[in-house]
Amino acid sequence: MTDSRPSSAIQAIVLLAEPPADMGVVLSAIQPGMGDPLAGTPLLPAFGLTVNGADLRIGAFGGAVTNDRLLADLSVSPMREHLDPHVAAHRGAVTLEIAPPTSGFFGPMVTWANVLAYLVDNLGAKVVWLPQQRTVTTDVLFIGEMERDPALVLAGVHAMWLDQAAGTSLAFSAGLHGLGSPEVQIRRSGEPALLYRHLRLALADCLRADRLLAVGDVLDVGGVHHEAVDGVSLTSGLPVLELVPAAAPAPRAEPAQAAAPAEPEKKRRRWPFG
After folding, report:
1. CA separation for the pair 52, 225 (Å, rounded)
2. Is the dihedral of CA 31, 36, 39, 43 positive or negative?
3. Is residue 222 part of a domain?
4. What pLDDT is recorded for position 102?
5. Which domain holds residue 41?
6. Spatial distance between the Cα atoms of 241 and 221, rounded to a whole number of angstroms
């Protein structure tokens, strides 16, 4: 398989036990009958289609994907033990690409992810590789997250111990650059799994709102407000946005209160009887 995607495209690669019979089979996996006009057409490395206004490019290949990046991403996948045999045995692949718009990106990206889920499900795939996110995952996890919250599928996050003895962890995004944003990292005390979850949920909220972070923005990560500042990635050495605890707002001064008027002196009440 030749890696010929345009550098600006976001790509997903679905690994298959066997290559599809033809392009008609591939397109009909998206929607029954969609591939009928291409029945019998040999596999194509790139075929353009528009779904719900999103411009996609789909390709299908025979043979295994031979790419060092795939093996590197697989090596850090939490599901590696389950994925290893499927990756080793695959003999075909389908790619799905999108060049996201510069604004209003969430809708087209969800369409891309939905089409990808149909391909994974209907082609019987066991492995999904998201190169920009440096993620290799299973069909069950990918489709399950799509059904629960598509924003999570778009929020690629990794986490690891920064200093286990000191109890500090590092979490960082992967894939935001494809949407035109710097990647994000955060270091904080606590276990990597918890920081992973908190950062992923926070980024998913941003993406769902068609929002990309910039310097000075404030993001709630696990209930703590963080400010995005310029930083350097601890894993790649490239520029990133570092999330640091936001300065607490200065306490609001209470308005000065006027002195209460003096209460008039009460007259002593005289009783009628001694």
Report:
1. 36
2. negative
3. yes
4. 72
5. 10-154
6. 14
User: CB–CB of 4/45 below 8 Å?
Assistant: yes
Please tell me the predicted confidence (pLDDT) of residue 272. 34
The pTM of the full predicted model, rounded to 2 decimals, is 0.87
Percent helix, strand, coil in the chain (nearest 5)? 30, 25, 40
How far, in whole angstroms, is CA 21 from its chain's centroid?
32
Q: Residue 3: inside a domain, yes or no?
A: no
- At residue 103 the predicted structure's pLDDT band, cuts being 50, 70 and 90, is confident
Domain finish residue from 154, 174, 194? 154
Number of folded domains in the chain?
Answer: 2
The reported pLDDT for the residue numbered 263 is 42
Q: Please indicate, yes or no, if residue 263 is contained in any of the structural domains.
A: no
Q: What is the 3-state secondary structure (H, E, C) of 188-253?
A: EECCHHHHHHHHHHHHHHHHHCCCCCCCCCEEEECCEEEEEEEEECCCCCCEEEEEEECCCCCCCC
